Amino acid sequence: MTEDAGQGGELEPRYEAAVERGSRLAAALAGGAVGLAGGPLGALGGAAVGWAAGEALPALLMEVISRVGNRASTRAAAAVVLMDADAREREERGEAMRDDGFHEPPGDDRQSDADELLEAVLRQAAEAVEEEKLPFLSRIYTAVERDPSVAPADAQYLVGLAGRLTYRQLVALSVLSRHDEYEEALIRAYMNATEGTISTDPGVRVELVDLINQQLVGIGDEPRVQVIGDPLSALALRSDVGYGQLRLLPTGERLVRLMGLDRIDEPRRLEWLRQLGHTP
Length: 280
Prior knowledge:
The chain is mainly alpha-helical. The protein is 57% helix and 2% strand. It is globular and about 60 Å long. The termini are far apart.
């Protein structure tokens, strides 16, 4: 607990206020389809269904709240509300917690891998100025705590990577995860851009280059999707298909799965394609 947390009981009212604001934000982001078992404060006190983190949850949230401003604390609390809702959905589907020691503290006053990941997600959520990212950031924790195939170090890397990406880049990954569905639109967008019919939004192009540089997106036909050494330059050699050759690399596929990016709705995907240069 930080020094500020113990001064005159100042943190507790701020904590409660942040949770209430976070609950409203989470409901807005999820269209009102979220709620906490026993109410927000009851769930955060350790009663949330499916939470292996248990009592570490409110302590970690209070730690984050004590270090950030009001809006950031609202986002961190909203992430917890969204995590709780997702955890209950997963429990209803019968998804079991991993039993490989992920939730066990190693001793010597160190946090468990689960607590370290939870803290990382809460800190990224607090810093997420694009609040539309929160439902997807929050799913990383609830997905990883049930997936023993994701090493703790990999999970930490993915959380940091997800925090750096823009919401529009998450939409791009969602589109590319449905390549078969949008292949013709991707080809048309490239043809429009190269023929000068429609210009690609410069920001979208820069973000796409960044996804390539992060080795989330490559080029080729499955199963031989390859890293592009010089971002987008290889497309010049494939002018017949262009963006249609872009596909997710394994890390991109993993990020899509853990964050649940398939839940991004179709209007957002179509808007990204429009900005890329596609016309219906």
